[in-house]
Design a protein that fits this description.
271 residues; alpha/beta; Rossmann fold; 6-stranded parallel β-sheet; 4-stranded parallel β-sheet; 10 strands; 15% strand; globular; binds D-glutamic acid
Length: 271
């Protein structure tokens, strides 16, 4: 039987999923999180579907050993193939793509939505499928932005070079007249101010983390799995597949508290 006091598993290829973990901590401050960042194998966006599936299955297997009560796939690239590894989990699991699509459809007025993400995400076409399911009249314009994940992992969040790269990627989308842009990679909210300054106020930026956290809340409530609050602040755990030190610095700056430490694990052993 799953315990409601158990933690929620959250994973990504690296730092990006921390933007989702941050939102979960904001909306569900009583929940404990076990975070896994696959820092040795980032980026996922340029890898084949088969590889992303294998990595995701290994991570789910690892999270099972931490006895999580639910899993949030805090990576759009892995969320794009979620239905093909759902069977690996024995607890409820949600991704970020469906909530992102839902928010965008409810936000657009002119029915022109842009999606930026990794090559894997864009090639999968999942945002187009989910958006069309919700509203067939919405036009979707996609752009893969493969250089952005390495720039974020490098810590160049507020940098002229990053701004130039972003500019090149989004110019075409601006010309299409989009009024809504889905940040379809969980690394991208760390570049939010750059997007905002290049796109202006007239384009709504969608961070799928917000609706994903709401969905997690509904899911936990409907399964009677919401944590019963005690008076202690929840003790989160962080795991990575490469150098924990660098991760600890970045994670502490994204989450705005000192995460303490992170443990390196051999994720390949969880096949
Ligand atoms: N942050 C991830 C995503 O949302 C993956 C980025 C990558 O590893 O390429 O797609």
């Amino acid at each position: 039987m799953i315990s409601r006091q158990a933690p929620v598993g959250v994973f990504d290829s690296g730092l990006g999923g921390l933007t989702v973990a941050r939102e979960i901590m904001r909306q569900l401050p009583g929940e404990r999180i076990v975070y896994f960042g696959d820092t040795a194998r980032v980026p996922y966006g340029s890898k084949s579907r088969q590889t992303v599936l294998r990595y995701s299955r290994q991570i789910v297997n690892f999270l099972k050993t931490r006895e999580v009560k639910a899993i949030v796939v805090a990576c759009n690239t892995a969320s794009a193939v979620l239905e093909d590894f759902r069977d690996a989990a024995d607890v409820p699991m949600i991704g970020v793509v469906k909530p992102g699509a839902f928010t965008a459809v409810h936000s657009t007025s002119n029915k022109k939505v842009g999606v930026i993400g990794t090559e894997g995400l864009v090639n999968s076409g999942v945002y187009i499928d989910y958006i069309r399911e919700l509203d067939p009249e919405v036009e979707v314009f996609q752009k893969a932005c493969p250089l952005l994940v390495p720039l974020v992992e490098e810590g160049w969040w507020h940098d002229d070079i990053t701004s130039e790269v972003v500019q090149r990627y989004i110019n075409g989308l601006k010309d299409q007249g989009i009024d809504t842009l889905i940040m379809g990679c969980t690394h991208y909210p760390l570049l939010r101010s750059t997007f905002r300054s290049l796109l202006g106020e007239e384009v709504t930026l969608i961070n799928p983390a917000y609706e994903t956290s709401r969905e997690l809340m509904r899911l936990l409530e409907s399964h009677n799995l919401s944590r019963i609050p005690d008076n202690l602040p929840p003790k989160h755990e962080f795991y990575v597949s490469d150098d924990p030190e660098r991760f600890v610095d970045f994670a502490s700056s994204v989450l705005k508290f000192d995460i303490g430490d992170a443990e390196k694990i051999l994720i390949e052993n969880y096949d």
